[in-house]
Structures are given as C-alpha cells and as structure tokens.
Amino acid sequence: MPLNVDSVGLVFPGQGAQSVGMGRWLVDSHATAKRVYDVAREVLGYDLLGLCLNGPSDQLDATEFSQPALFVCSMAAAEVWKEQQPDLVPRVKAAAGLSLGEYSAICYAGGLGFEDGLKLVQKRGQAMQLAADVVSSGMASVIGIDLDSLTNLCNHLRAEGEVLQPANILCPGNIAVSGHLTAIERLIQAAPAAGASKVIPLAVAGAFHTSLMQPAAQSLASALAAVPIRDLTIPVYSNVDASVHLSGSEFTHLLSKQLVSPVRWEDSVRKMIDDGVEAFVEIGTGRVLRGTIKRVNRKLPLEGFGDGEDT
Questions:
Q1: Cα torsion for 130, 131, 134, 136, to the nearest 10°?
Q2: Which residues, in sequence order, are CB contacts of 101 under 8 Å at separation 6+?
Q3: How far apart are CA 34 and CA 24, in angstroms?
Q4: φ, ψ for residue 263 (rounded to 5)?
Q5: What long-range pairs does 163-168 form, CB within 8 A, spacing at least 24?
Q6: Bridge partners, residue 199, by sequence
Q7: Do you find a cis peptide bond into 68, omega within 30 degrees of 0?
Q8: How confident is the model at residue 1 (pLDDT cuts 50, 70, 90)?
C-alpha cells in the first residue's frame, strides 16, 4: 500500500531481531542485496550470509555475530528499498535505530560508509561480548508496569554494589531491565506483585546500556575516534537523549555513551511524531519496532521492508 504522506521516518532494528533465515528474501530476489553481503564477507573475513541463512542459531545469537548480521541485513534492505521506492526517498525526513540500529540510521543518513560502519559494529559487538564475559549479568523484559514504578522497584531490589535499572524504554508497558543476574532473578520474582503482567528473561550476553558496559564504551570510543563520522543529510534521533542530531562529531560521542545509557526509544518515537513524521518504515528484519510504535500511536501508517512478506 503506497504511503501518501509528505514525511516518512525510517527505523532500524537492534539486537534481538535476528533469526536464522534473515536476509533470504533480499538476496534471493535482489542482486543489490547480494552485493552488500559480498562486501560484508570481505570486511569481516567470514561468511556472514551463510550464518544468517543457515545458522546455527546459537552462533547467530551471540553478540559478536548478531550485531554485524543485523547491520548488514538492514543496510542491504535499505539499498533495495531505495531502488524500489524512489518516490519515497525524498520524503524521508528522519531516521532512528534501536541501540545497534542507530548505526544503520547514521549510515543511511550519510554519516558513515558501509564498510566503516560495519567495522565499527563488529568492534562494538566484540567489545560488548568481552565486557559481558567479565560479570554475571543479563536483561529481562518487564511487561505491564510504568517506568516510575519499575524504577522504584529496581531501587528497592538492588543490593549494595549491584546494578539493576531500566535499560530499554521501548513503549508504554514494555521496558527492558539490565543488571547483575542475582538482581534480575529477584526482579523476576517480585515484579508480578508490583503490577507487571509478565517478566521475560532475554537471551543476551549481559547488562547492556548500564555502567557494566563501561569497558566496552571505552574500547568503542577509541574505535570511533579513528573513524570520523560525517555530518548527516537527514536528522537522526539519538537513543541517549531522544533528540535530533546532524553533527557527525556529536554522534562520535553519543555512540560510546549509548552503551552505558538507557535507550530512550519511546521518547524518540514521540519526538519524531511531534516533529512531523507521518508514517514509519521499519527497514531490516523483524517487526519489533512497528509493535513499539503502534503502542505509542495506533493511527500512523506502518510498513516493513526486508523480509518479503512484510512489504
């Protein structure tokens, strides 16, 4: 269905959207996408497309592999989308990405070339995996409780020296919490009595977007310093402050800060709508972001591009 709007916002998924088979429709149907994966193989030094198509799932789910996989899938989808929807490209007025997806948004907006973006994403995934290996930590999705109540609950449950805090503020009633595993386990037990309808442990390596990722943030900051980000051609909304940024140098700082800061996704979506975005297209695999946007505003048109059946 054509989007009859003047202002389109592109959104790019983050870690957790990956699944075995991702990218199959893109490479089977479009030579442009296959070329993107061919370049990725040269940059990474391994067969990323084979891993995406055939697994094994435990390897694809590992942080150091899932992050490049999602980035490449999103960028391949973006190239094909631009070919198939040339009338919509001039109407893209904003972009954002969930955590890892922010790199895809920045690349789409001209801040990074594909190869530089992929190298940074690879280093990001490796650094986050190393930081996660140091301490027993994780994440859980808490459904049906508001942010203030959840923050108070985390403060109550957190023991001295522990980390336990909202980390991905996705949409009303859906917030992911990061922290030490001992604290996460207490949260899983206590959250229903505090009003949560469901608590789901997440299959991630560690407590992303907290101070436990500080070693990864330092490592990433060094990598970012070596790869200048150009000023952007369209506004990108940062996870850190839910605000528009066009300066490449600002994103050099924000991308490292992002690893130790809560992801303000709900605020970013609301700000994009307030700033005039009339429809959203989720570029890449999965439909997680459309679900979050629908919880913020059910009236806006939503489309997906990357999995074939979602177009």
A1: -120
A2: 11, 12, 13, 14, 70, 74, 284, 289
A3: 10
A4: -85, 115
A5: 163/137, 163/207, 163/210, 163/211, 163/212, 165/210, 165/262, 166/262, 167/139, 167/207, 167/208, 167/209, 167/210, 167/262, 167/263, 168/98, 168/99, 168/139, 168/209, 168/262, 168/263, 168/265
A6: 142
A7: no
A8: low
Tell me which residues are annotated as active site: 99, 209
The pLDDT-based confidence of 309 (bands split at 50, 70, 90) is low
Q: Which of 294, 298, 299 is nearest to 11 (CA)?
A: 294
Q: What is the pLDDT of residues 41-50, one digit of tens each?
A: 999 999 999 9
Residue 253: CB atoms within 10 A of its CB come to 17
Provide the token pair at 142: 């808490």
Q: Exposure of 87 by Cβ count < 10 A (0-12 exposed, 13-18 middle, 19+ buried)?
A: exposed
Instruction: For residue 201, give the amino acid letter.
Output: P
Per-residue pLDDT reduced to its tens digit, 206-245: 999 999 999 999 999 999 999 999 999 999 999 999 999 9
What distance in Å separates the CA atoms of residue 81 and residue 129, rounded to the nearest whole number?
32
Instruction: Report d(CA 105, CA 274) in Å as an integer.
Output: 19
The rounded mean pLDDT for the chain is 96
Tokens of 179: 């922290």
Measure the CA–CA gap between 67 and 78, rounded to whole angstroms.
17
